[in-house]
Amino acid sequence: MSDAAALAAFVGAQRWSGARGERLTDARVEAAIPVESTGATCIVLGARVAGRHVRYQTWLHHHEGASLDAVVARGALADATHDAALHLGLVRLLADGSTRDGTGARLVAEPLAGASDELRALSSSRVLSAEQSNTSIVYDDRVILKLFRRLEPGVQPDVEVTAFLTRRGFAHVPALLGTLSIDDASGAAVAAMAQRFVPGARDAWAFAVDRARAAVAGDAPPREYADGEARRLGAVTRALHDALASDADDADFAPRRAEADTVARWAAAASESVEQGVALLRERLVAGALDALPDASATAARGVADAGVDAVVATVNRLAAKASHDAGAATRHHGDYHLGQVLRAPDDGALFVIDFEGEPSRALEVRRARHCPLRDVAGMLRSFAYAGATAALDRPDDAAAAERARTWEAVAREAFLDGYFGDGAAAFLPAERASADALLAMFELEKAFYELAYELRNRPTWVPIPLAGIARLAGA
């Protein structure tokens, strides 16, 4: 086995590898950057996955001249990102704003102004265990360094948006402190970003599900979560969109008026999501893969399949037509917004929005593109649906509990929208609420059919959740 093949096998087996369960082919080591102060070498592996060229970064212990073949033979190939020496070496590198040259690339550290002293003073570290596609290191419960395992040349949206919001003084995003980049002949790719850490935080999903379960069990009124947390989350979301649309002179963030052809493009994307969802639903129904669905969900599934693409696309087009001349502006937005992308501080419940990478399956230019900010709002509304449905799963045969779950979702939606629209008009929003509601319904349909396809592929027992949303939105 060659060095590259050995490393490809190692990378493909890692939890953070997007290629897990897939086959990496044509693998080669594209760069090796030894960083003596860390006791490790940054290896950039290039490979093909399903016909696409991808690159990963991994950090391995210095091998003192031994080949990867020899290391693998000893069973000693191990990721160094769990070692304290690497943790401290990386943060010192960042504090100093240093550059390290290697074979095929160099590592460039860029601290933000005023961050170096704080970064240099960090001492203890730990690796978070919950992440799937990245690796995050927490220092002194004050700073978090996120390593982007999949490297993409060009601007990293998470860094770009967080940097913009940090410059604007937006209080609901953990401030950016610096970045590490890997620079080679094809350009620079962000390898890591350092931000403030929110110690003891829970994500808003866990909090919402807890409160939904209390409401479904009859231990708390449904409006308790809505009148407190959901309304406040709506206001924070609106403040986020206000901030992202606040600089008309920034070429990457200045809002652009949404014309009729812009809305037509949004409707076409929503229709594509519908087509994919319906096609997969019909395939699964024919195969008998959904025979175990509850009667009501089975009826809804057949209704969506029988109605077909044309009926739902007609609904999408009607909704788009209602807003085609009153759609506000296209702006930068979160792009993958849901309860899991919001942190809740343990002391005062302050809310912080994180992870501006966008939907990971989409191309970089799509994730950086301007879109309607109401697409984020629709994503959060769908997240409330999932939280309420998750709470109801604890009582599968309790009709009263199911009704309480639906009530919890409905009042959470209402309160969130009140919080979002409560600050009045904005140039990036439609002038009329009816136009905004039409766009919201269209984006919810797009998201619900995306969810339907996802659940059909990965969690068939969860198919009733997007089906219920589709039934409500499209009358299927």
Structure description:
The chain has 476 residues and is α+β, with helices and mostly antiparallel strands. It has three domains: 3-80; 84-196, 2-Layer Sandwich (Phosphorylase Kinase, domain 1); 202-474, Alpha-Beta Complex (Aminoglycoside 3'-phosphotransferase, Chain: A, domain 2). 46% of the residues lie in helices and 19% in strands. The chain is built from 14 helices and 16 strands. It has helices at 3-12, 68-73, 84-96, 116-120, 157-167, 204-216, 223-244, 260-286, 295-323, 364-367, 374-392, 399-421, 433-458, 464-474, and strands spanning 24-35, 40-49, 52-61, 99-101, 106-111, 125-127, 134-139, 143-148, 150-151, 176-184, 187-196, 202-203, 256-257, 329-330, 342-344, 351-353. The protein has a seven-stranded antiparallel β-sheet with strand order 4-5-10-11-8-7-6. Helix 6 crosses helix 11. The termini are far apart.
Oligomer: single chain
* Estimated radius of gyration: 24 Å
- State the major sheet: 7 strands, antiparallel
Strand content: 15-25%
Task: Report how far the terminal alpha carbons are from each other.
Answer: 55 Å
Order of helices and strands: HEEEHHEEHEEEEHEEEHHEHHEEEHHHHH
Q: What labels describe this entry?
A:
476 residues, alpha+beta, Aminoglycoside 3'-phosphotransferase, Chain: A, domain 2, 3 domains, four-stranded antiparallel β-sheet, 19% strand
List the helices and strands and how they pair.
Blueprint: H1 3-12, E1 24-35, E2 40-49, E3 52-61, H2 68-73, H3 84-96, E4 99-101, E5 106-111, H4 116-120, E6 125-127, E7 134-139, E8 143-148, E9 150-151, H5 157-167, E10 176-184, E11 187-196, E12 202-203, H6 204-216, H7 223-244, E13 256-257, H8 260-286, H9 295-323, E14 329-330, E15 342-344, E16 351-353, H10 364-367, H11 374-392, H12 399-421, H13 433-458, H14 464-474
Antiparallel strand pairs: 1-2, 2-3, 3-9, 4-5, 5-10, 6-7, 7-8, 8-11, 10-11, 12-15, 13-14, 15-16
Helix pairs in contact: 6-11, 6-12, 7-12, 8-9, 8-13, 9-13, 9-14, 11-12, 11-13, 13-14
